[in-house]
Design goal:
By secondary structure, the protein is of the alpha/beta class. It has a single domain, classed as Divalent-metal-dependent TIM barrel enzymes (TIM Barrel, Alpha-Beta Barrel). Helix content is 40%, strand content 21%. The strands form two sheets. The chain has an eight-stranded parallel barrel, surrounded by five helices. Strand 5, helix 5 and strand 6 form a beta-alpha-beta unit. The longest helix has 16 residues.
Length: 236
């Protein structure tokens, strides 16, 4: 598989950043998506050292609110470029897109709009596709499968709708009541989901985001990762 399996560090939100990065490595992962609460922009140099010590790469960062404030957005893109971040997982204001068109071109950093379920401005795949239509090809989707399911999406069809504009995944599973569960124990067609990722040539950041058990998340994270590795190995 071309995609890179990692962990959204929000899964480890009860831990300080150094401990969280150590846990990512202990889980056998080399990639992480940074939760801004773990690594504020002003701590970039400290964050780089911690990541290097553990041999972990931060290839995505978010979720970030993006606005039309150009100085602030340039600061964020400079941070991303300096950290080696390839994708900013984002919740962009509607009036920010003309600025974002310029910044993604200038910095070579992609913006992946995160769907956040019912009640958010980007609940499912359709709202995101509508938002980025007509804009730079570096603006696309970070698909959250749990929030997508809660918004009524067919998560397999959602991958195909985004196609080459799918730049990130926050992988979750849900039960019949649409509540998060350990990945592999829910009702989502994750084998179909992974198959669709292969079909569209997904090469982005496949990040497990495990929001359960914040004080003791590692057992559920390991179980989820085992399922992902076993299931994706069957597709190779």
């Amino acid at each position: 598989m071309k995609w890179r399996l990692g962990l959204q560090s929000y899964s480890l939100r009860a831990m300080p950043f150094p401990q969280a990065v150590a846990k990512v490595k202990e889980a056998g992962l080399e990639f992480v998506e940074g939760f801004p609460g773990h690594l504020p922009m002003e701590k970039a140099e400290e964050g780089k050292k911690i990541l290097q010590e553990h041999g972990v790469r931060m290839i995505a960062y978010g979720v970030c609110r993006l606005t039309s404030n150009e100085p602030a957005m340039r600061q964020l893109f400079e941070f991303a470029k300096g950290m080696g971040i390839e994708v900013l997982t984002a919740d962009p204001d509607p009036d920010s897109f003309s600025l974002l068109d310029r910044l993604v071109e200038e910095y070579g950093v992609k913006v992946a709009i995160h769907n956040h379920g019912p009640g958010s401005r980007y609940p499912g795949v359709d709202s995101v596709v509508k938002a980025y239509e007509g804009h730079h090809s570096f603006i696309g989707l970070c698909y959250d499968s749990g929030h997508g399911a809660r918004a009524g999406d067919d998560v397999v069809a959602a991958v195909r709708k985004a196609g080459s504009r799918l730049y990130g995944v926050h992988l979750k599973d849900v039960n019949a009541q649409k509540h998060d569960v350990v990945v592999g124990e829910g009702v989502l067609d994750l084998k179909g989901f992974f198959t669709a990722l292969v079909e569209v040539g997904f090469a982005g950041a496949l990040m497990l985001e495990y929001e359960l058990d914040p004080q003791d998340p590692m057992p559920g994270i390991r179980q989820s990762l085992d399922f992902v590795k076993k299931t994706t190995a069957q597709l190779a």
